[in-house]
Structures are given as C-alpha cells and as structure tokens.
Amino acid sequence: MKNCQQCIIKELNSLKTLNNEELLSITDCKTTLSFKRGDVIFGESENINGVFCIRQGVCKISKMGINGKDQIINFIGKGNLLGQRSVIADEATNLKATSMTDMDVCFIPKKEIINNLTNNSKFSLSVLKNMSNALKETDNHIVDLAQKPVKIRMAETLLYIYDNFGVDDDGMLSVILTRDDYANIVGTATESAIRILSQFKKDGLITTEGKKIKIIDQQGLLNQ
Q: Is 73 helix (H, G, I), strand (E, B) or coil?
C-alpha cells in the first residue's frame, strides 16, 4: 500500500493541505481499488461512506434523465476526489460514476474525511473551493447547452477531452466515447452528433477509427 506522504497524486487535490500525521492516518485506513473500463464506481442514491481519490484513469459522472437515459455531467480524471459532496452533506449520492478507462483509486473512509474537515481549516477551505469550482463548471455547462450551437459544443467537447486527458500512443483521444455519449454531452440527437462529427472529418479537423477520434486541426475546431 502506497504511503500518502510520498504520493504525488495528493498534490493535485485537497489532501496536499494535510500534515504528515493526518496523511499517515489516511494511509492506515484507506483501501486501494481497481476498476475496468465500464465498471460502475458508484450509482445514484448509493451510500458510499467515503471518498475516492483517483490515482490513475478517467470516469464519467452522469445522472439518469426522465427519458431513462444517462445524461453525462462531467469527466473526472487523475488527482481528483469523488464523493466529497455526499460525505459532507451526509446523504446518498446524487450522481453515478462509471470508469471510462482502467482506473486505480484509493478509498478513504468517511470518518477520516470528516475528522480532517473538523480539525484542519486549510483542508476544509480547499474542499469548499473545489466544490465551488465544480458548481461554476456546472453553471457554465447549463448556459452552453441553452445558448451555444451544437456544432460549437461538439468542437469544445473534443478539445476539452484532448486538453484534460490527452491521447494514446497513436494520437487518438485517450477517452473513448460512443456517438450516443457525444450526443448526450452536447445535448442533441445521436443522428445529429454523427452528422457533425462526419462534417468535422470531411473538413479535415479530425480522423476516426471506429469509436476512436484523433484531432488533426485544433485551431479549426476552435474556429467553429
């Protein structure tokens, strides 16, 4: 089990504000977990009793809509914490987390998180700031869905994945999504998403291999 004091991942989240004694306490009680692509980390209305720290990989955060389809809210990757809101609010999860790649995570029990929130003001402030930033991103996403054309939202989604999660050895986006997923993210019909991606390919902005997508012209996507 990796010692939290020596783990560089903590520098990417609120755990960096904890002192050595607090990090050692987390090391003693945490559990390391692995998920394969497509595994559900936690579902809606689930009592998770702790926080997940992502050491490697990417997951999608989604919520079931009235039409019975999952609406993708966001993608969360290496260094982020999952489940903070549920732990702080002391309630079941409101969203679902599903692995988009193979993932390695550390699960930190709720009791440990609450203890640090209570006794370490720097940790509490950092957690609140991260939650506030997440709310701001959600606000922006809602406005984008209401006001931006679908073509621009699709271009921004591709660039977001590229900027935040990178590419594989072949230059393809490391997060592989179905056309349904892309339609879900930008808020359009699957047929429309396929049509827009086909146009991007025709315009030389991207290339595709099955579900995989490679960005060829970033500036061209920015100019949509």
A: strand
* Torsion of the alpha carbons at 120, 74, 140 and 217, rounded to the nearest 10: 120
Contacts for 156-160: CB closer than 8 Å, 24+ residues apart: 156/221, 157/182, 157/185, 157/186, 158/200, 158/206, 158/213, 158/215, 158/221, 159/215, 159/218, 159/221, 159/222, 160/75
Nearest alpha carbon to residue 84 among 31, 48, 34: 48
Query: Token pair for residue 90?
Result: 């002391």
Whether the model pTM is above 0.70: yes
CA distance 110 to 107: 9
First to last CA, the chain: 47
State the sign of the Cα–Cα–Cα–Cα dihedral 143, 147, 152, 154: positive
Tens of pLDDT, residues 130-151: 999 988 988 888 788 778 999 9
pLDDT tens, residue by residue, 204-219? 999 999 999 999 999 9
Residue with tokens 């396929």: 194
Q: Please give the backbone phi and psi of residue 220, each rounded to the nearest 5 degrees, phi first.
A: -65, -40
CA-CA distance, 90 to 114, in Å (whole number)?
10
Place of tokens 């002192």: 19
pLDDT of residue 3: 84
Sequence-distant (6+) residues with CB within 8 A of 54 are 9, 76, 77, 78, 79, 80, 81, 82, 103, 104, 105
Rounded-to-integer distance, Cα 2 and Cα 167, Å? 27
Q: Do residues 207 and 151 touch, judged by C-beta distance below 8 A?
A: no
